[in-house]
Amino acid sequence: MLIKQENISMIKLALLGKSIHHSKSPVIYAELFNNEVEYTLLDIAKPQSIPSLDEIFKEQMGLSITAPYKTHFINAVKMDNTVRKIGGINCIKKEGSQYIATNTDYLAAKEIFLRENYNEREVVVLGSGTMAKMFNVLFDELNIDYVQYSRKVDGNLNDINFEQEFNLDKLLIINCCARAFHFNLSLSKNTIFWDMNYKHSFHESSLTNKLTYIDGSELLYLQAVAAKKFWNFTL
Prior knowledge:
Strand order of the largest sheet: 2-1-3-4-5
Number of domains: 2
Distance between the termini: 13 Å
Structural class: alpha/beta
Keywords: Amino-acid biosynthesis, Aromatic amino acid biosynthesis
CATH class of the largest domain: Alpha Beta
Low-confidence stretches: 1-7
CATH superfamily of the largest domain: NAD(P)-binding Rossmann-like Domain
Pathway: Metabolic intermediate biosynthesis; chorismate biosynthesis; chorismate from D-erythrose 4-phosphate and phosphoenolpyruvate: step 4/7
Protein name: Shikimate dehydrogenase substrate binding N-terminal domain-containing protein
Radius of gyration: 19 Å
Organism: Halobacteriovorax vibrionivorans
Number of strands: 10
Pfam family, one: Shikimate_dh_N
Oligomer: single chain
């Protein structure tokens, strides 16, 4: 959807999620759109309180979605086969009377994973939610072997004996668990813990001296860049 210059003076975007007061998205999109953006946080506690897409798009031109609502509009949008396999969406636009969705986390994660040569490491995914499913689809595409643990199946993830199961100096742990989960193991300084969360105060303070900690800030930025391209707005 290309918005002509004479039609608008500001891009109107929104982020849907729960407990998203910490979000960096307003700052990121202000940068990407040269401050010509009005950004609204739709911080909604219960899914039954979420407005319809028709209601949202009366006010907004583009919608981003974060946890726990990445599946909420899954049956109300069109998407490609890759996004359908993931089963979660984080970006919606309107074309005519149709809503089109994608998963820009997938695009950002793929860019980082290949750039950093993470395929040369032993890969562990923690969690079983939408972000974990996104990595499942990505690794199937790239033919990457990985091991997945979740609290639902494996219990306390801090009880896993990583040293026995993996070469810690070549280990990449991708944390897709919710912010409430606190990983607290001392591994190798060469072990990379790639956290899909950002501004996670516990992980930032406790893991720095136990392994190599990388938070989700770059992924957040790159998925926003991909979202801007997907929306294809121009002022």
